[in-house]
Predict the 3D structure of the following.
Amino acid sequence: MTVSVCVPEDVPELVKSAAGLFSEDAGRHDPRMDLGWPDRDGAAYYAELVDDPDCLCLLAGGGHLIGRMRPPNELRPGAVTAVLESMRVGPAHRRSGVGAELVAAFVAWAKERGANELAVQAYAHNEGALAFYHAQGFRPFEVRLAQSL
């Protein structure tokens, strides 16, 4: 499987993958998520990311990975953090190693930019995503608790 860095012509593919992620993940785990966002606003959002040197946009296996460097935080001045903002592997390529390849490319990119910490968020009830990220070396650091009213 080839992992490729996105160019502007790839934005429609990013939008398509993001729409799949919204539908498959947020659609199951977050009833308040705007599932129409990728189709409505995704093209402009991802076009900006593709051109941003502090962002990484990858395509592989019918899916994507979006990573970005987080600005310095004065409360944690020793942390140089790269955030894995969004990731999806197309259904036909799951459990084939594509996800691990995407994460490996993200890790290499983050190291090149001086990151000493990686971060990712996943829904607490998405056991598959949590297991995948755990297998990639991510460990719990903070826990966000929410209460529906």
User: Anything to note?
Assistant: The CA atoms of residues 82 and 111 lie 9 Å apart. The chain has a mean pLDDT of 95.
